[in-house]
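Please, structure for the following, as tokens.
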Amino acid sequence: MAQETSEHAANAAAETAGAAAELAEHAVHHEPSMTVTLVFTAILLGMILTLAFEERLHAKKSIITGVYAVLALAFGHLLDVLPFGPVVNVFGESLELPVYIQGIDWGVIAIILGSSLFVDVTSKSGLFTWIAIKMTKASRGDPLLLLGAYGLLTVVFSALLNNVTAMIIIGSLTAVSLEKLEQREKLLGFLLIEGLLTNIGGLLTLISSVPNIIVGQAAGISFVAFFIKAAPYVFVATLLTLWLGAKKYGIGRLKTDEEKESAAELVSSFDERDGIESKGFFWFAAAMLVAFICGIAMTSVLEYPLGMGFVAMAFGIVMLLRYKATADRFYRALDWDLLLFFAFLFIVINVMEHAAVLHLIGDGLKVVIDLNEATDGLGTGATLVSAAGFSAVTDNIPLAAMLAKILQGMEPLSDGRLWWSVIFGANLGGNLTPIGSASTVVAVTLMHKYELKMGFAQFVKAALGFAIAQIILATLYVLFVVPLLP
């Protein structure tokens, strides 16, 4: 019996070693030439330009990115840049997975899918209407106070949860409030500002975004030290964004007594109990919302192995039990264009990684970083701006990982501000384009849901002023304020 067990263990070990060797054999392939890298760079730029003209092309974002995903995969095969072959999992099992399946960040897909289901079902309880009316009453119908309340809530939610979940929840509440106030024309401005604030909120703590975690760990920045150095910027940038947004979209205080009386009369007529069909389901939904927020927040702190995507999906499924016989109506209501857009975009970016496009970007940024050795702070500021620019069109996670590796190779760094330039640049770059971060994509999707016109080029035009102001403020903050903080 012992001999059989020993033989079985030996065979298992041999199979594991063989699978690992097979994986290594498939993984080793030559570095693409500069010509090949430039071909894929052109494909990436083509996708960005095509998305900019999505309105004129009358094409959904998912179709555009889908076409470029197919193109990138086809060229990836023809030019031999993709690592075809089996994948060895943690159990040593060799699995056959298509290379494009491996390229998708399924964690993000699960977060969007689970959060969307959770929010859609929870809204049927009347909870979101209740919260929105309570906040509207607290603002006394004043649009600027309401913007400030939702703006601050967006930042807090983005810091504690993740920016996608924050945008889905806050966007839904905002729509209810403005519909009740009969000021739906301000919804576009509210949603844009909230979308931009999600990326500012992502700077607040070490665990608020993946780039923060990557760079923070590489630099040895503690949770408390990160918060102390990031919080002042987040506070000022939030106020600046709210002020710029209020001016741009004409969101102001109620001025005359007549306006205040009219708003007070309108708000007093609101009944937060509207839409509550079952008190039992309402309180269950309230408890689940609190548990959902705590669950998502604690996932990062506890390093829960199944991740935020599992938590979001689990809560979505639990809420669906209420409508188990008619759950398909919630499936039909899902934004499949959004989900497929992300899936195809992840595939394109993954191919770009294998084609060394991101490596090319990293080499360019290394030249910028090296400026710091010759000049006092020029390289730091240029690194922040460059990281923001590249984060606007590529995935900021591999970009942050690459820059962290470059900075680690330069240890000991003559200027510790370089770490913060990467952190701020990787987060704020998401506000330059609607594909710069998942939350801005969600914000634009919500605009389309409420029949508000906002294409790629229109977003860039609307958000550019905000993003430039935030990046300039961040550059000055990193150069002159960060060194003064403990």
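Residues 1-28 have pLDDT under 50 and may be disordered. Residues 338 and 445 are 7 Å apart (CA to CA).
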